[in-house]
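Example complex used in Figure S2.
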Amino acid sequence: MATESVNSEITGKVWKLVCAVGDTVEEEGPILIIESMKMEIPVLAPCAGRVVKLLVAEGDDVAEGQEVAVVER
Amino acid sequence: MLFRSLSYLPSHAGEVPPRAAVPEGSDAAAASMLDIVPESRSKVYDVRKVAAAICDTGSLLPLKDRFAKTAYTALGRIDGRVVGILASNPLFKAGALDPDSCDKATSFLVLCDSFNIPIVLLVDTPGFLIGVEGERRKAPGKVINFMTALQMCTVPKFSIVMRKSYGQAYLNMGGTRNSDEMLAWYSADVGFMDPNVGVNVVHGVRHEDDPERFAKLVAEIRRDSSAYDLAGIFAAQAVLDPRESRTWLSRLLEVHQRRPQKSIGRHLLGNWPTTF
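Predicted assembly (349 residues):
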């Protein structure tokens, strides 16, 4: 099964994990929410599939481009 | 797909795009605008749904949909008339425009101007994404190119500020007379930056240090930034209920057909390079 990296598009702080490892997601479905610029910005799945890794926890700082999860198609 | 794409374009540079029949029920979606855009300023939404609610049913043809998603570009129709939708999408990077978005927007503006397609700008953006990476990718030059391209467009340009429109992005998305008609939803908020960040920048006060003074300073910075303040200095022609957006745009498109050359532009961007 192919896997896809899920990267944060923006620098910020992980505010909420919307999915858990093992959950299925749709393409552009939210995986976690980052707080940045006083806004709650969802990090979206690049493809439909199953979340196999969550690489951050709530409260973590993330940088733009940082890998935050992995989705298996 | 090819025939569909060509149906949005005129046969030659001296005519406007053909007008199509309006699908039944096209007016109905505008009523759902308040369900699409959250009341809370901190919540995001998908501007593609706003564009779909404004345009005739099924008329949107997104361009470069998978590239630079912060900027949404699409051809569509309002009341049968072709328009080019250029919108910031809060779903991606909170709507902050990055260098790729500038490139995407600039080439889209050139396309619309070349084919006599009126431009509709839907604005909800905290500004441009700058910083070290932005500098490496020529962000300042791309931002100015984007603004200059908009200024050189001579097709009708209508801008709707939906929520935020801060800083330079306000100009790039039609502000300060860079559009022919500026409309503002009653939720519009125009300023130099987010007031909560602005207090820290201007006064050096953080919320956690002095919440009461912070709140007072936020209120002060926020003064004069509402849709009504914008209209009060004639920087916006009207303050709208979001559900009225389609009706207003339809009327403005009709009015601008009364230009001497209808909505045919002067094609000042004829030699414009779309890369920088």
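The CA atoms of residues 3 and 35 of chain A lie 26 Å apart. The interface with chain B takes residues 9-10, 36-42, 44, 64 of chain A (CB under 8 Å).
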